[in-house]
């Protein structure tokens, strides 16, 4: 064991045990400037969930899907909660069929037909109309997948590191998807959720490092800006985009006491599809922040 590893082992604090899916150590901070971001709305997941083990969120066009690792608390089968996106009321509750014990599905994303959920080395997908699991594919980008996003052509994933991967899948259940490094811009090395923002053509990346950091990336993998979700969401779970008050906004799970969902004022000044070509040229190549794991 080298001196750096010994220092980390001896002096970096362990996270307290509890219902939070987060890296075991507090990971490095960031050198970049961090901006504030406004909360627009929120609701409490524990008003309807089995307990405090809620981690993932997706949106199917009219409903939120929220995942809970119920078996982490020893109280049964992992769940998916279907929530009305206007009233925030529970509409349905679905077993996570075929998932492993523990946290089960983490982050979620939707491709207009299926809801995809990251589960260790698998990605399971559910028919949105019937809410039944219909297949899965293998992805070896991470040993345990947390983040999951879809931009209309590619998936994106990552897990407790600085690296975001771009994933290409052939659409055949049971097959293995290919992957490549998309970005290494997540400096706090605690990636948990990814959401694709169709209006601004960018990615939002939530982290579970107890520092509240949210990363905004362009579609070249470069860093646009870093935001601070504290004090509302110092340790995030998954994320998605969904409408609020007539505009597409970012929604994130806060692994807190109690677990919450927050809606954020997620506009990217000067960046949207109409001007993306010019902005991309100005941004230049992606800003990389570390070695690929």
Q: Could you describe the 3D structure shown?
A:
With 293 residues, the protein is mainly beta. The chain has a single domain (39-283), classed as TolB, C-terminal domain (Neuraminidase, 6 Propeller), CATH 2.120.10. It contains 2 helices and 21 strands. The protein has helices at 3-11, 276-283, and strands at 34-36, 39-44, 54-59, 63-68, 79-84, 90-95, 108-110, 114-119, 122-127, 132-138, 149-150, 155-157, 164-168, 178-183, 191-197, 202-207, 213-218, 223-228, 236-244, 247-254, 260-264. It has a 5-stranded mixed β-sheet, with no helix packed on it. A 4-stranded antiparallel β-sheet has the order 2-21-20-19, with no helix packed on it. Strands 3-4-5-6 form a 4-stranded antiparallel β-sheet, with no helix packed on it. Strand 17 and strand 18 form a beta hairpin. The model is unreliable at 1-17 and 274-293 (pLDDT under 50).
């Amino acid at each position: 064991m080298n001196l750096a590893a010994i220092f980390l082992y001896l002096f970096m604090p362990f996270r307290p045990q509890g219902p939070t899916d987060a890296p075991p150590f507090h990971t490095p901070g960031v050198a970049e400037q961090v901006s504030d971001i406004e909360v627009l709305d929120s609701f409490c997941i524990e008003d309807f969930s089995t307990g405090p083990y809620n981690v993932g969120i997706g949106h199917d066009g009219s409903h939120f899907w929220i995942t809970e690792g119920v078996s982490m608390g020893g109280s049964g089968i992992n769940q998916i909660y279907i929530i009305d996106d206007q009233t925030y009321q529970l509409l349905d509750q679905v077993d996570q069929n075929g998932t492993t014990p523990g946290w089960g599905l983490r982050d979620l994303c939707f491709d207009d037909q299926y809801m995809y959920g990251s589960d260790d080395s698998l990605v399971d997908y559910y028919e949105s109309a019937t809410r039944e699991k219909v297949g899965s594919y293998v992805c070896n980008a991470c040993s345990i997948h947390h983040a999951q996003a879809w931009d209309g052509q590619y998936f994106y994933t990552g897990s407790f590191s600085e690296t975001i991967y771009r994933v290409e899948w052939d659409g055949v259940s049971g097959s293995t998807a290919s992957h490549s490094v998309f970005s290494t811009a997540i400096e706090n090395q605690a990636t948990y959720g990814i959401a694709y923002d169709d209006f601004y053509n960018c990615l939002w990346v939530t982290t579970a490092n107890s520092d509240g950091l949210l990363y905004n990336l362009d579609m070249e993998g470069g860093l646009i800006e870093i935001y601070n979700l504290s004090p509302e969401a110092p340790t995030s779970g998954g994320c998605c985009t969904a409408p609020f008050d007539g505009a597409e906004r970012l929604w994130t799970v806060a692994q807190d006491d109690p677990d919450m969902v927050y809606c954020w004022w997620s506009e990217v000044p000067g960046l949207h599809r109409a001007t993306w070509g010019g902005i991309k040229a100005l941004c230049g190549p992606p800003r990389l922040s570390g070695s690929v794991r």
